[in-house]
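Handout, section B. The chain below has 171 residues.
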Amino acid sequence: MHNKNMHPPAAPALLGAQRSEGERSEPERSGASSKAGAEPRPGTRPNPEVVARAKRRRFTAEYKQRVLAEADAASEPGAVGALLRREGLFSSHLVYWRRERAEGIHQGLTPRKRGRKSKRHPLEEENRKLRRENQRLEEQLRKAGIVIEVQKKVAALLGQPIQTPDTEEEY
């Protein structure tokens, strides 16, 4: 007779929980235990300096042309991959630079400014610039007029009035 309170032995569960002798544990698999036991060489410490902000690389036209020439001249299997690894480039760089070269865009090989392009018309830009300059010059003229008026009053107080021709009478 089978008692309900008695549980059958969990043989399959125990077998699954046990590890076979050839199986490695997780730290061994990731190499953590071998690294943890290794002593760092004296005098060698990693550089704690962290760059605040990564800078985007910019390539000159001469550099792009030199790399493209080397990639085109590569004849052995794996030579282009070795070139890319040596220069720290991606294959997409070559694709993009070849497309630029094929389209005949020499100015495309020079670095371009990133970000939004101005949507304003060049004549509008010139118009705004001229208006600002005109406003600055009008303010300068107003200040000069004030200085001249003060000089006239000082000259009149000293008894030496300044003779200025009236602009209305000249015309």
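Note. The CA atoms of residues 13 and 19 lie 12 Å apart. Compare this with the example in section A.
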